Every structure is written in structure tokens, then in C-alpha cells.
Amino acid sequence: MSSYLFDQLRFVRSNTLKLVDGLEDERSEIIPAPLNNHIKWNLGHIYFIHERNAFRFVKEKEDWVMPESFPSLFSPGTKPENGQKMPVELSEIVRLLENQIDRIESTLKDRLKEKTEPYTTSMGLHLSSVEEFLSCCLYHEGMHLERINVIKKLI
């Protein structure tokens, strides 16, 4: 039986993917003024944070699926160079996003209450269990979903 948390993660992810369905790679890299990133960066960043929250802090390195270029492109504090083509296609990021929640659930569905390496987010939220890290992903993806929506309207 699926946890409501995983249902929520799928709901938010479904909305993220719907928002970018049919978007061309070139348009996904437009950075509208006054913003400092684009749709592709937001999508890659969502993927990066989910992987980190689900697998790194839980010490599940073997389930971690992270393309080599992603940390330098999509970690917190990174931003794309305006006008410079990113070395990853939008379709690759979308493909990774489409399968991510299923991978997370299959690894962690029976471990939600498990304690993890503690971490405090940049906003000051203290996380110390699998469930807390995954719940934080809901807020994080929702925030970037809205940013993608704004960028899409501006381009």
C-alpha cells in the first residue's frame, strides 16, 4: 500500500512534468529578465535535490542516480550562464524526473520513520528522518514549480 507522502510526491511531479510537456530544449534555456535561471536549470535542480534528500542523507549511494555533470550544473548556489548552451538535454532531465519518485518509493517506502544524518536547510528547517527529507521535497519542488510557471509566462 502506497503512503500518502508518495502520492503527494507523484502529484507534484505530475504537475511539474505537465507544465513542461512539449517545451522545446532551446526555449527551456531562456533566462527572462530579471531572473537568474531558466526552466531547464529549475528541473535539473529539482532532480538533484530529490536525489540528495532521498539517497545521500539516508546513505543509499547504490540507489543514487546522478549524471556526472549534474552537481556542477544544478547544486544549490549554481546558476546557468545566460546564452550558453547547457551540456544536458531537456529530454534527459525529463526522463530522469519521470522515474525518480518510483525509485525513491521502492527504496524508502518501509523506512519513512528511520533516522538519518541530520541536516538544516538554507531556510533553517532541521531534517533528521527519511519522512522529513521527503516532505521537504514537496515544498522545494512546489516552489520551483511556481518559478517554472513564471518563467514560462515570461518567455
TrEMBL record:
One matching Pfam family: DinB_2
Domain DinB-like: 8-146
Source taxon at top rank: Bacteria
Gene3D superfamilies recorded: dinb family like domain
Protein name: DinB family protein
Organism: Fictibacillus terranigra
